[in-house]
Design goal:
single chain, 273 residues, alpha+beta, Arc Repressor Mutant, subunit A, Beta-Lactamase, two-stranded antiparallel sheet
């Protein structure tokens, strides 16, 4: 009974997290496995996870199977595992407080007010884009997207922009056949081979457009955000209804504003280019 009382009162006890009796060993093992997945190494095999975590192989197998079943890991055709959609939303609260979001938000708010359209800020997470900021002004097809949501990078303007700045090896590691969602717009590319020409053009031109690739009736234009080292760390876009905006009008009126906003955010992050 005393132990039960302690458990019931744990939420009110600031020191509870430091007490051994509150440690859930199975959860700790699962978190140890998840912590291995990084930008530098986004995929792992079960046989490599065991020595890296110091856990027995049978234990690692059970943990990985559980995380996969719950949507926190995804099993790739080559036998590797990578973070699943659910794990990408775990850090949403932390992402909101990042310097990137804090510095970018005022700039993006001005961009949204200036254009009267929806403005987004995203980063690349595996083969998906993760929304850090979403300022929705118009009645878009993708109205259910919010901060913490993810979409297939290959079908979005920000996603293509960020993929274009990866080297060939990392691009091929991140983007697989499963990266191309079955539900997409009429103009979407359906394989990496088809997408390569677009990525090359985006890297050269420094901006990207999505023309009814994510969904029918939706277009967007995106530009990159650079950090102090010159690395592309995020992308911002303006998303519009295709019935109101031709691609030519987007390039003429919206692209310069998005590029300028991203240049301002980059400068706030210490980029001098």
């Amino acid at each position: 009974m005393p132990a039960q009382r302690r458990a019931l009162n744990a939420d009110d006890d600031p020191s509870a997290t430091a007490r051994p009796e509150y440690r859930v060993e199975a959860l700790a093992k699962g978190l140890r496995v998840l912590s291995l997945f990084t930008e530098q190494r986004p995929t792992w095999r079960v046989s490599d996870i065991a020595p890296a975590t110091g856990l027995p192989l049978p234990t690692v197998y059970r943990v990985v199977m559980t995380l996969t079943a719950e949507g926190y890991l995804e099993h790739l055709p080559n036998g590797d595992y990578r973070p699943g959609g659910k794990v990408l939303t775990l850090g949403t609260a932390a992402l909101r407080s990042m310097d990137l979001v804090e510095l970018a938000s005022p700039v993006l708010q001005r961009l949204a007010a200036d254009t009267g359209e929806t403005v987004n800020l995203c980063v690349l997470a595996g083969d998906r884009v993760l929304y850090l900021v979403r300022l929705r002004n118009s009645d878009l097809v993708t109205a259910n997207i919010q901060v913490g949501s993810t979409l297939a990078a290959v079908h979005t303007s920000i996603g293509k922009l960020l993929l274009a700045h990866l080297d060939r090896k990392e691009l091929e590691t991140r983007v697989t056949a499963k990266s191309f969602a079955p539900n997409h717009g009429p103009n979407a590319k359906e394989s990496l081979a088809e997408l390569r020409a677009d990525l090359a053009a985006i890297r050269k031109e420094g901006w990207a457009m999505q023309d009814e690739e994510l969904a029918s009736g939706l277009r967007s234009v995106a530009a990159p955000v650079y950090d102090s080292t010159g690395a592309v760390v995020a992308g911002a876009n303006v998303a519009v209804q295709s019935r109101d905006w031709t691609t030519r009008r987007i390039v003429r009126e919206l692209k310069p504003k998005v590029v300028d906003a991203c240049r301002e955010i980059s400068a706030l992050l210490g980029h001098s280019g």
